[in-house]
Please model this.
Amino acid sequence: MAKILYFANLVDKLGSSSEEVSLPASITDVRALLAWLRARGGNWETALMEHMVRVTVNRQFAAPETSIDNTTEIAIVPARPG
Model:
């Protein structure tokens, strides 16, 4: 299972600091992950827009096309503090 960590104001907006999820086979990169999470609606949709967050994959900052799978640790942080 992939581990997703949320930081700063995302914790308040999303109501969680972390979760472990089994990614569907169609989720193979950071861009697809963010779209999948945004599909939850509400605060997820607005808080996780690509221009609003930065993502790390296995503790390295990642580009939208960076590959992920169910063994990945993903951290999502606001692009700007606040």
Q: What stands out?
A: The mean pLDDT is 96. The chain has three helices and five strands.
